[in-house]
Amino acid sequence: MPAYDEQTVNVSAREKAESFASINSKLGVVQKGALTEAIRAAYAQRADSVLPYPDFHDVFRIVATMYEEDNKKDDSLIEVLRDLSDFDLFWRHGSDVAPIDRLSSRTLLIDVHAMPVLKELVAYLVIERLYKEMALLPDSPVRDGRRTIRSILVIDEAHNYLSQRNIFLQRIIREGRSKGIVVFFASQSPNDYQQKFFNFQELLEFAFIFQCEGVSSGSVQDILGCSTKTAKDLQIEIAHLEPWQVMARSPERTEEFVKFTAEAFYKNY
Predict the structure, then answer these.
(1) What residues have CB less than 8 Å from 65, skipping those under 6 apart?
(2) Distance CA 180, CA 142 (A)
(3) What pLDDT, on the 0 to 100 scale, is given for residue 14?
(4) How far apart are CA 239 and CA 244, in angstroms?
(5) Which residues make beta-bridge pairs with 142?
(6) Which residues, at least 6 apart from 84, have a Cβ–Cβ distance to it below 8 Å?
(7) DSSP 3-state assignment of 181?
(8) Which residues are paired to 153 by β-bridges?
(9) What pLDDT does residue 267 have?
């Protein structure tokens, strides 16, 4: 963090508790309070060290001690923290590798498909960190009328994450353009972008529909900006598109959509 005063630590501890609760519905008010208190205590224990911040092992040990002293049984909070600790999902004190200073200046591939636990939480915390870095950046420079891109956040199989109430992902989408932070989603269906709590579809600057089945006419209409009749007609056509055939919003006002054949990335690089 930029500072380790009491107020900054308290805010960070509370935010982490809310992040955990947004992913795990079993974490109630009591668990959030216990986690907040443990994180504060973990920062206090590391306050005089060279690296004045805790790792998840510190937090787990403190929560486990709290539960033991109060004769409390293990619950969902203990389970989550134990998994974070046992599987070494994040940096820990004593590691030979230094923690990453800035995510936004690195090229990273975070592969969670084989992860046995906490996939959503890992993604949530990484995205939260990226937002915190973004918020401290000045607006990216404009050159020849174009905004300079600093970072691209790519989320593959995005349907696994769009349903999560990740307020930091929403903030990156809303606020990231001026900072030069771009979000790229790849998902199984256009239907995935319409969530009850947040309509990602409304904020998509560019959208490309490849072959997929079960797409609703409403999603097609919203993405392409076409008429209701055209969207219904395209439902069947979209289900039978050939590989690399794409439908997208037309740049011409006289056309409701465009259909073209994309060129595979690997053929160009």
Answers:
(1) none
(2) 10
(3) 93
(4) 13
(5) 147
(6) 56, 60, 90, 118, 121
(7) strand
(8) 183
(9) 84
The pLDDT of residue 170 is: 86
Measured distance CA(189)–CA(186) in Å, rounded: 9
**How is the chain split into domains, by residue range?**
1-96, 100-187, 201-269
The rounded average pLDDT for each run of 10 residues, N- to C-terminus, in the chain (269 residues) is 91 90 85 94 93 94 93 91 87 90 87 79 88 92 92 87 82 91 87 75 84 86 88 90 91 87 85
pLDDT at 192: 78
Torsion angles phi and psi, residue 255, rounded to 5: -120, 140
∠ CA 252-257-262, rounded to 5°: 100
CB 193 within 8 A of CB 170: no
Report how far residue 53's alpha carbon sits from residue 62's, in angstroms, rounded to the nearest whole number: 14
The residue to which tokens 């591939």 are assigned: 109
Q: Identify whether the C-beta of residue 17 lies closer than 8 Å to the C-beta of residue 76.
A: no
Tokens of 112: 């969670």
